[in-house]
Structure formats: C-alpha cells, structure tokens
C-alpha cells in the first residue's frame, strides 16, 4: 500500500494507463469526489444565498468553511480513506490541513477578486477545485495516512 507521496507517484507512473482505474488511489479519488461534490454543492448554494442576502464574500466563506470541514471529516475518514487510527489526532491534523485550505481560499479571493477584479462568484467556484486538490493529498498523506509496514 502507498505510504508516502514519493511511493504514490512511483506507483502511478509505473502503472499502464489502462490499469490506472484499478489502483486503490483511484477508488479513493472517486469516493473523495462524492463526499466533496455533495458537500460543495450544498456549500456553494449556501454561499450564493448568503452573499445575495448581503453577507460579504470572505465572511460567508469563513462561516461556511467550518460547516464543510466537519461534514468532510466524517465523510472522508471512513468512506474515502478507511482510517482506523486515533480520531482525536486525525481531527487535529484535519483541522491543520483545513486551515491551509482556508488560507488558500482566502488568498485566491484576495488576489483574484480584490486585486484583479474578477467576480467573486467565479473565483469561489474555481477555488473549490483548487482547494479540493490540495486537500486530497493533505488528507491522504498527512491526516489519514496508512500505517507504515514494519
């Protein structure tokens, strides 16, 4: 089983293209996608609603991000990564990873909305995918790692 990012990259590079779908990491990506799509569809809908009602975009993200983090932890811990380790330490690492995701989200809004003038709705939609990619690898290798073989 893949235990490090380097081993992950090596496994993917050595697997023929037609066989990639059989890798456990591809099944994890599908499951991660299901959890994430459900969570983000609801979150983005709520984001559009509360910003339409007058809540500033960064305030809306700050509130809704916390709700999404909790849904994601429980959905991904068992369903995506089948983690059987300490819930407490996994949750601590999960929140650390999500602080990084939150900061990345805010940075994208600051740069592309505040400095470059793009519509916040478009940037937040794109941010969902950027942050999701970062978080998949953070969850796989930092939050819910497989135990190392002895």
Number of strands: 0
Which structural category do the helix and sheet elements fall into? Answer: mainly alpha
Share of residues in helices: over 70%
Order of helices and strands: HHHHH
Major sheet details: none
Mean pLDDT across every amino acid position: 88
Low-confidence stretches: none
What proportion strand?
under 5%
Shape: globular
Provide an overview of this structure.
By secondary structure, the chain is mostly helical. It has one domain. 77% of the residues lie in helices and 0% in strands. The chain contains five helices and no strands. Helix 2 (24-52) packs antiparallel against helix 5 and helix 4 runs antiparallel to helix 5. The longest helix has 29 residues, at 24-52.
Concise summary:
The chain is an all-alpha fold and 150 residues long. It has helices spanning 5-14, 24-52, 57-80, 87-115, 120-143. Helix 2 (24-52) runs antiparallel to helix 5 (120-143), helix 3 runs antiparallel to helix 4 and helix 4 (87-115) packs antiparallel against helix 5 (120-143).
Q: What is the secondary structure topology, with strand pairs?
A:
Elements: H1 5-14, H2 24-52, H3 57-80, H4 87-115, H5 120-143
Keywords:
single chain; 150 residues; mainly alpha
């Amino acid at each position: 089983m893949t235990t490090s990012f380097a081993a992950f990259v090596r496994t993917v590079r050595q697997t023929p293209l037609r066989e990639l779908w059989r890798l456990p990491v591809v099944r994890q990506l599908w499951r991660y996608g299901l959890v994430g799509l459900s969570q983000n569809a609801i979150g983005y809908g709520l984001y559009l609603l509360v910003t339409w009602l007058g809540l500033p975009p960064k305030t809306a993200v700050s509130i809704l991000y916390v709700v999404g983090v909790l849904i994601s932890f429980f959905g991904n811990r068992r369903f995506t990564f089948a983690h059987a380790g300490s819930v407490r330490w996994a949750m601590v690492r999960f929140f650390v990873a999500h602080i990084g995701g939150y900061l990345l989200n805010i940075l994208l809004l600051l740069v592309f909305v505040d400095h470059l003038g793009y519509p916040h709705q478009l940037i937040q939609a794109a941010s969902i995918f950027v942050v999701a990619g970062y978080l998949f690898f953070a969850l796989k290798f930092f939050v819910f790692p497989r135990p190392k073989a002895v």
